[in-house]
Amino acid sequence: MRPMTELYGLCVYRFLLSRQWVILTLVALLLIPTMIRLGIWQMHRYEERTARNQLVADALGAKPVPVEEMTSPGHAVATGERYHRVTAKGRFDTDDEVVVRRRTNSDDEVGYHVLTPFVLDDGKVLLVNRGWIPSDGPSQTAFPKIPAPPRGEITVTGRLMPDETTAASGIKNLKGLPDRQIMLINSEQEARRLDAQVLGGYIAQTAPEPKGDTPELIGRPGDENAALNYAYAIQWWLFAAGVPVGWVILVRRERRDRAAAASATAQEKETAPAPA
């Protein structure tokens, strides 16, 4: 026979078999592994962002190299090559210059990026994003006025960037655009348009700086906020640890409330007047 104290304890916690408490317990049991997995996912995001930040910092801090050491016609710029500083010697070809639509500057103003072919000494072409200019009007159908680049042979420096695609950027490559306007910077498309050997990817120009501060050079890429993902991971794991603690607190409060209600009922019966 079970001791009376054990039987009393079982009776006290019989409410855990009620429909309400069974559902609450199952939800708690499901929340714990879910929150743990969310914390692990956030930690993976933290590691990925930290690695990308380090990759960008290493690329921007590396010594500039001739562009043809990093890319060639038909080359797909890899993740480890992105943002690497390169130099090129040649001349700008403004006759085949185009603008890239729907681009914003640091103040979120909508305008264009100026994409100018840069003819190297060996005849190959490097696509140079010279920076941002405002649109002339709301229609954006006429070709905008673009400040001319330096004439003659010069040396440009820039950050190497991969070809833009719809999948990577989310920008649709629309057809039927006004003359000399494009949506994406893509070396293969520009090679067909120019009928020339175009180096894979393009560069975002950093030097020489334009006269009159226009086009507005594209700013240095910022660091991703990896610390936020780390904080989210710790937060999810704290939530996971808090679920069983909260469940125990609710059980004890329920037991206390039921015991108080039972005691009050017993007192009412004891103090109730006897029937006549």
Automatic annotation (TrEMBL):
Q: Which UniProt keywords apply?
A: Cell membrane, Membrane, Transmembrane, Transmembrane helix
Q: How does it sit in the membrane?
A: Multi-pass membrane protein
What Pfam family is a match for this entry?
SURF1
Q: Which GO terms describe its cellular component?
A: plasma membrane
From the Swiss-Prot or TrEMBL record, state where the protein is found.
Cell membrane; Membrane
Superkingdom is Bacteria
Give TM segment ranges. 21-41, 230-250
InterPro entries assigned: Surf1/Shy1, Surf1/Surf4
The entry assigns this protein to a family as follows: Belongs to the SURF1 family.
* PANTHER family for this protein: SURFEIT LOCUS PROTEIN, SURFEIT LOCUS PROTEIN 1
Question: Can you say what this protein is called?
Answer: SURF1-like protein
Species assigned in the record: Streptomyces spongiae
